[in-house]
Amino acid sequence: MTVLAKEEVSSRIAMEKTLKYSQTVEKAGNLLFRFPLKKVRGIPLREPIAQNIESVWAFCPDPTDILIATYPKAGTTWAQEIVDLLLHNGDKEACKRGPIVLRSPFLEIFYPPPMLSGLDLLYQMSPPRIIKTHLAIQLIPEGFWEKKCKVIYVARNAKDNLVSYYHFDRMTLTQPEPGSWENYIQKFMNGDLGWGSWYDHVKGYWKEREKRNILYLFYEDLKENPQREVERIMQYLDLSVSDEVIARIVELTSFEVMKENPMTNYSFNPKNMFDQSISAFMRKGEVGDWVNHFSASQLKIFDENYEQQMEMANIPFRSNL
Ligand code: PPS
Known about the structure:
The structure is a single chain. By secondary structure, this protein is α/β, with parallel strands linked by helices. It has a single domain (about 40-310), classed as P-loop containing nucleotide triphosphate hydrolases (Rossmann fold). Helix content is about 45%, strand content about 10%. The chain has 15 helices and 6 strands. It has helices spanning about 5-30, 45-50, 55, 75-85, 100-105, 120-125, 140-145, 160-170, 180-190, 200-210, 220-225, 225-235, 245-250, 255-260, 295-310, and strands at about 35-40, 45, 65-70, 130-135, 150-155, 215-220. A 4-stranded parallel β-sheet has the order 4-3-5-6, sandwiched between helices. The chain has a two-stranded antiparallel ribbon with strand order 1-2. The chain is globular. The termini are far apart. About 40% of the residues are buried. The structure holds 3'-phosphate-adenosine-5'-phosphate sulfate (PPS). 3'-phosphate-adenosine-5'-phosphate sulfate (PPS) binds near residues 72, 76 and 282.
């Protein structure tokens, strides 16, 4: 009998999990479509999420669970991978044990059965769990605050965030149709996109960051100096890994490596959910790509509106490096 190496065994387990996940999504067929949005306490959410929000609110985390909160497309997957690697002392193989959606479930996600919800996955796992959410701070289940869970928020400058969300909505067949770029900018400014207003989202967590001990990170800082930011995350999580491990984590979570990593690039999501021939999930991973999208007049309107909505917020966003 041939005894397989440990890495080979974990790689086969990962392949099997990935295949099973992809097949379940594929089988969901036309149960998946561009879900309409429905408001919960004034915030538009995908209908299946809105319908199940009470069970999300009833979720009772463990104090060791870690919440990664973001407005969509602000760098969630990047932060999820960094945290998973930190918890596994930079062990590349450990973080290839399954697709990111299974290693770090999406708290509020609900699809029609037989697809599993974020809660189904969470209830199967033991703490500490790395939990993803896009919920605005006022919609976070109270348990996270009561249990004093660590909460990492990643914010991205509005223009790049908007561009990334637009391309995501083009290729994600469970999100509402994005419509034209021109109209999309309007919807973003009006807070009409899934998970609501970017402006309220970033301000909501910013205001509470000290009181609730939230680590508030910026995508641009991660891009500028990933080593410094990975160290900040490590310290916040009360972890201690060597400089060599930090360097490895920085390398493994670079855009180029994550784009090629089948456990982070969402290639496990079949075409009936993500049509990456339209736009890749790991699209550009840059700061400042907005210059390739906004016309001069769109920029003027956007910037004026930004000034109004972000007046007094004093959040040090950077749209260029
Ligand atoms: S989601 O669907 O909300 O969870 O998406 P999210 O992961 O928040 O955001 C996806 C965007 O983040 C970019 N990304 C990265 N940039 C730099 N480095 C790394 N490692 C990285 N990983 C993901 C990804 O490319 C999307 O941004 P755009 O601008 O569209 O490329």
